[in-house]
Design a protein that fits this description.
The relative contact order is 0.08. The chain has 3 domains: 122 residues, Immunoglobulin-like (Sandwich), CATH 2.60.40; 132 residues, no CATH class; 216 residues, Phosphatidylinositol 3-kinase Catalytic Subunit, Chain A, Domain 5, CATH 1.10.1070. Helices cover 25% and strands 22% of the residues. The N and C termini lie far apart (128 Å). The longest helix is centred in the C-terminal third of the chain and has 29 residues. The chain is of the alpha+beta class.
Length: 571
């Protein structure tokens, strides 16, 4: 018979150990007492020293997030997916197999491979297996089973990222200067508007290349202003298909000259944008602005006064590698422009362009006081069909201007027309001597705000400015002329005009013109298709510079001669 060990300890998973005596037989427990059994004392037992299990530190962070990518990162197939950038802010490589990324809906990406110290890993939504929601979402980074980083947002703007600023730091901010796969900027962008930060830049001239087939070129080169499809490269951004057509009236030209262009980003692939823009205009400056800078200073002045106006940039344009010279990039009057000026109204605000011919034929654009303005404007932007309550404001204003400019009618006008806008618009056109604007009237727009349902005048065609002596008390536009017929409205206009005169100096508008025109001068000099001689350009620069100083003073003089009791006329 084999020898039995003196002690056998049985541990069975899920069971309680059973006491045994030295003979190996079971020892019954006394069920009637809680007293412990007595017996031989077991020797002291010490737990063995086990080595501590230390996990490698996971120094991975979410370095940048882009949830609405219009033009920040493009794949080989031309798509522009959402993306996330992970970064290693440690001093050693990290095993990404221990890292996972999860969105607010529980979609999960599991890491693999190694991320070196200081390195970045760019993951598109294709890599992640899920897209991000710009409206409301969360990204959680897990290391082993712990949360090691998290980012959440609401209403993330187009082409705006959430980035560690500076790179791999502890501070995450929104910025319109995204850097997918690259070192983040040291500071965030001044604004969160991608178009402002990338396209409408005062100190930069862009390069735009259009590529067309022979058939596309022939379609484009038409006085019918037919849309053609083309490839476009805007600086380093490539678009396989965009819409392109010629535009203009007095400035119209065909492809053997220097044509003006209109670009529509959606003519090829619906929903395409460039830095939040659906499209833009390229003005050639052929007729009215040899300096190529008047649009910029005039619209900047308008916006500083508090009225909606297009933003302006510049580009050298090439078509099939042929150089077409310098152009002004002019923002188009659409919902993007509305949203920039009045956040939250881009989808519901109404933008209208008065027809170029009055009903009955002939003449300049349609106008207030004709009785048919609401039915004879071109509907450029807004809900379709338009909200009747919004359009009613235009009809009421139209009817009021057909009546006498009594105090009661002026008060009624302020119920449907934004007072600050009208007075500021009139002051703006007077000071810059907008010969081709509402003073004609020719180039202008109407915006109706969807909340207060009031009519606003919007500038357009500001090339022909700072070029003719101003006449602040003479108007071709019926609404402005009607206001001047009422002494109360006339006085309000005078007061606002004097404030806008001071704004010219406060903005240092003359210095701004000098800076921009000097930047553009060498490019203009090399423009092979410009209609303007060197002497014409130089004379226009000199006269514009002088007039930015003189015109506000001339306007002040005319206003104060007419209304000497105004407070601003005492100096």
């Amino acid at each position: 018979m084999p020898r039995i060990p003196s002690l056998v300890l049985l541990v069975i998973a899920g069971c309680t150990p059973v006491d045994t005596d030295v003979s190996g037989r079971r020892s019954p427990l006394d069920a009637d007492t809680t007293e412990p059994r007595t017996g031989p004392t077991a020797p002291d037992h010490e737990e063995p020293d086990l080595p501590d299990l230390e996990l490698d530190p996971l120094t991975v962070v979410i370095n940048e997030v882009m949830a609405l990518n219009d033009s920040t990162y493009t794949l080989a197939d031309g798509s522009r997916p959402d993306w996330v950038e992970l970064g290693n802010n440690g001093n050693a490589p990290v095993d990404l197999s221990h890292v996972a990324l999860e969105d607010g809906n529980g979609n999960r990406w599991q890491g693999e491979g190694t991320l070196d110290a200081g390195a970045r890993l760019l993951l598109t939504s294709d890599d992640l297996g899920f897209a991000l929601d710009a409206t409301d979402d969360t990204l959680t980074l897990f290391g082993y089973t712990d949360v090691i980083d998290e980012v959440e947002w609401e209403g993330l703007e187009r082409d705006v990222s959430i980035a560690r600023t500076p790179d791999l730091s502890d501070v995450m901010v929104r910025t319109a200067w995204p850097t997918p796969g690259l070192v983040n900027e040291a500071t965030a962008s001044p604004t969160l508007d991608a178009a402002t930060e990338h396209i409408f830049i005062t100190e930069r001239v862009h390069r735009i290349d259009f590529t067309l087939t022979n058939q596309q070129f022939d379609t484009l080169n038409s006085r019918d202003e037919d849309w053609a499809q083309a490839e476009m490269r805007f600086d380093d951004l490539d678009y396989e298909v965009i819409g392109l057509r010629l535009k203009g009236s007095a400035s119209f030209d065909t492809m053997d000259g220097k044509p003006a262009f209109k670009v529509d980003m959606n003519k090829g692939v619906p929903g395409t944008r460039i830095k939040s823009l659906k499209g833009f205009n390229l003005h050639n400056g052929n007729v009215l602005d040899p300096t190529r800078a008047r649009d910029h200073i005039s619209y900047s002045f308008a916006r500083a006064g508090g009225i909606m106006a297009p933003r302006v940039g510049w580009a050298e344009v090439f078509v099939n590698e042929n150089y077409f010279g310098i152009y002004m990039i002019i923002e188009q009057h659409d919902d993007v422009m509305i949203e920039h000026a009045y956040p939250g109204t881009g989808e519901t605000g109404v933008m209208l362009e008065p027809n170029e011919n009055r009903s009955g034929g002939g003449g300049w654009g349609n106008d207030f006081g004709t009785g048919d303005l609401a039915s004879s404007v071109d509907y450029e932007e807004g809900e379709v069909p338009p909200n009747p309550e919004i359009m009613a404001a235009l009809s009421i204003a139209d009817d009021l201007v057909s009546l006498a400019a009594t105090d009661a009618n002026v008060e009624a006008l302020w119920e449907v027309v934004d007072q600050h806008n009208l007075l500021t618009y009139m002051a703006w056109e007077s000071i810059i001597s907008h010969t081709d604007g509402y003073k004609a009237p020719n180039n202008w727009r109407i915006f109706i705000h969807p909340v207060d349902k009031k009519v606003h005048l919007v500038p357009a065609g500001a090339e022909w400015t700072w070029d003719n002596n101003p006449s602040p008390l003479s108007w071709g536009g019926n609404l402005a002329d009607w206001c001047l017929d009422n002494q109360g409205c006339r006085r309000l206009y005078g007061e606002r005009t004097l404030e806008m005169v001071d704004l010219v100096e406060d903005m240092e508008l003359q210095d701004e013109f000098f800076t921009v025109s000097e930047m553009l001068a060498p490019i203009i000099a090399l423009d092979p298709r410009s209609r303007h001689s060197t002497s014409t350009v130089n004379n226009a620069k000199a006269s514009t510079y002088d007039n930015i100083y003189e015109y506000p003073r001339d306007v002040r003089s005319d206003i104060c001669d007419d209304m000497p009791s105004l407070a601003g006329c005492s100096r």
